[in-house]
Design goal:
The structure is a single chain. By secondary structure, the protein is mainly α. The protein has a domain of 26 residues. It is 95% helix and 0% strand. It is built from 1 helix and no strands.
């Protein structure tokens, strides 16, 4: 394998890594957003559950 071929493969590998990093960071951001929503909704749901039995 020539040096040029190795350089081409290295560049392809770097691009693949960069794409995977973007994907992973996107998943992490989405996970953080979902956890934030779940935390916010959880408080509301607990509050609703505690009111329903009292109203019956």
């Amino acid at each position: 394998m020539t040096t040029k071929e190795k350089d081409i493969l290295i560049e392809i590998m770097r691009q693949n890594i960069a794409e995977k990093e973007k994907y992973i960071y996107g998943l992490i951001r989405e996970n953080i957003k979902l956890k934030g929503k779940r935390h916010t909704n959880k408080g509301g749901l607990d509050h609703e559950k505690s009111e329903k039995p009292n109203s019956l």
